[in-house]
Design brief:
Layout: H1 13-19, H2 22-30, H3 37-66, H4 81-106, H5 115-136, H6 162-195, H7 199-209, H8 216-231, H9 233-237, H10 239-248, H11 260-286, H12 295-326, H13 329-340, H14 344-361, H15 364-367, H16 370-397, H17 412-435, H18 441-453
Helix pairs in contact: 3-17, 4-5, 4-8, 4-11, 4-16, 5-6, 5-17, 6-7, 6-8, 6-10, 10-11, 11-12, 11-16, 12-13, 12-14, 13-14, 14-16
Length: 454
């Protein structure tokens, strides 16, 4: 669907006019505008990000000095906010990977406005996700013991341990996101090299550009490599289901279910599309990129949220039906704990937000307008964290032995560490906006020229 006032590929007429002047388009997208109100907004966001990051650093320092006892964990609930944050962040990362890679493979040109900062979002969310399990080890200084390095002490990792599944799956996904994003950025790095005003800028961008000159042969090789890496997104995204299989492989009644990997993956992509929509609205409204991030992009992001939200609700229903229809007392008790126990408010609140979001996104007036879409997306991101909280915490609270039933209450250090990862994500993203093109200049320019020819 092409909306009123938009040209093919979702760009405005002003964007097409600027595409006729290579210098104008490059200036718009390679050097992020920091003038007047835009400068103030960027610095305010950076100040907030630094404050949150410092909060996380203080929390981590207290944790390293005093141990994991500062968290609200107990003998029953041994995974708390830390593992909740891990699952939440890595799920967010997968949405951008799917959007960029799959749309590249099927040839949807409107992805060119979203893929660059979407891939950056995936990389930074993966980094934030990896912080929690490393700190949860209790002795993070021995993290390298989990890696298959050439150990002279012959202390090898236990590859049958689910902990090792996380190490290799997260490492593979991090390297994939890093390489996929970097390869897609090579032509833009060459553009930055050519436009650099300082010698050391030209040297740094030149080294990263790997000698790119834009020859026909280089473009052909680049397209083949880029598409080949996009194909790898399919197994890479299933990293998230690998983490969910870790839960399914346990015998806890609330986790021992074959639908759990799909349930976790759909929820992660749902929240990832929501965060991507929030970032899109902020870039469009606060940083004057409305010519390149239009209502069409908001519409498609809203449709993606609606799709994966509906799939999440379906998986949610199947999961609860299995517990009810199976008739096993332990899963029935765990289900009762969720719907009517100490976590009932979290359970019903998250479910109501997901239902309301899917229903609201069915209306174009919500999907295509920045503020309503951002409001719904923010509610979805928060609700999916709560849903992960119920999954992780309630699943441990009500096991087979009544004597071991217990509840979990996060401490201030649980919350400050979570806030620290949010600040770190914002900090990395804001720095990215200043040193690299937030949109793919060469791909946007190609899409604009292609649409003008048609």
């Amino acid at each position: 669907m092409t909306q009123r006032g938009l040209q093919p590929h979702g760009f405005t007429a002003e964007a097409h006019r600027r595409a006729g002047h290579v210098g104008t388009l490059a200036s718009d997208l390679t050097v992020f505008p920091l003038e007047g109100a835009t400068r103030r907004r960027w610095y305010l966001m950076m100040a907030a990000a630094l404050l949150l990051t410092v909060t996380g650093v203080v929390s981590t320092t207290v944790l390293l000095v005093s141990g994991v006892g500062v968290w609200g964990l107990n003998n029953t609930v041994v995974w708390g906010n830390d593992i909740v944050g891990t699952i939440w962040w890595i799920g967010i990362a997968h949405a951008a990977t799917i959007l960029s890679a799959v749309l590249l493979l099927i040839g949807k040109e409107w992805r060119t406005s979203l893929n660059r900062y979407g891939e950056a979002m995936a990389l930074y969310a993966t980094i934030c996700s990896a912080i929690f399990p490393i700190l949860h080890l209790g002795r993070p200084d021995y993290f390298y013991w989990l890696l298959p390095y050439a150990s002279t002490l012959e202390v090898w990792p236990q590859f049958r341990s689910p902990l090792q599944w996380d190490v290799f799956s997260y490492l593979f996904y991090f390297l994939y996101v890093l390489v996929f994003g970097y390869v897609g950025m090579i032509p833009d790095l060459a553009l930055l090299r050519n436009r650099a005003r300082r010698r050391w800028h030209a040297v740094v961008y030149g080294v990263l550009a790997l000698g790119w000159r834009g020859s026909a042969r280089q473009w052909a090789v680049w397209r083949r490599v880029y598409r080949s890496l996009a194909i790898l997104a399919i197994p890479a995204v299933f990293v998230h289901t690998g983490g969910a299989y870790l839960f399914s492989s346990s015998v806890l009644p609330d986790w021992h279910s074959s639908i759990l990997p799909a349930f976790v993956m759909f929820g992660g992509i749902f929240s990832g599309f929501a965060l991507l929509a929030i970032i899109t609205v902020v870039l469009r409204q606060a940083f004057d990129l409305g010519h390149y991030l239009t209502g069409l992009h908001l519409d498609y992001l809203g449709r993606g949220m609606m799709l994966f939200g509906a799939l999440l609700l379906y998986a949610h229903g199947v999961k609860e039906f299995h517990a009810f229809y199976g008739g096993d007392p332990a899963p029935l008790g765990a289900l009762a704990e969720r719907v009517a126990g100490p976590y009932a408010l979290h359970y019903w609140g998250a479910l109501a937000v997901c239902l309301g979001a899917v229903a609201a996104l069915a209306f174009p007036a919500v999907r295509c307008r920045p503020l309503p879409l951002a409001a719904v997306s923010a509610a979805v991101v928060a609700a999916m964290w709560v849903e992960r909280y119920v999954l992780v915490v309630a699943g441990q609270s009500h096991g087979f032995l009544p004597a071991r039933w217990a509840t979990y209450s996060p401490t201030v250090w649980d919350w400050t560490l979570l806030a620290g990862t949010v600040g770190l994500f914002l900090l990395l993203f804001l720095v990215f906006m200043r040193v690299l093109p937030v949109l793919s200049v060469t791909e946007v320019q190609h899409s604009l020229h292609e649409s003008r020819e048609h």
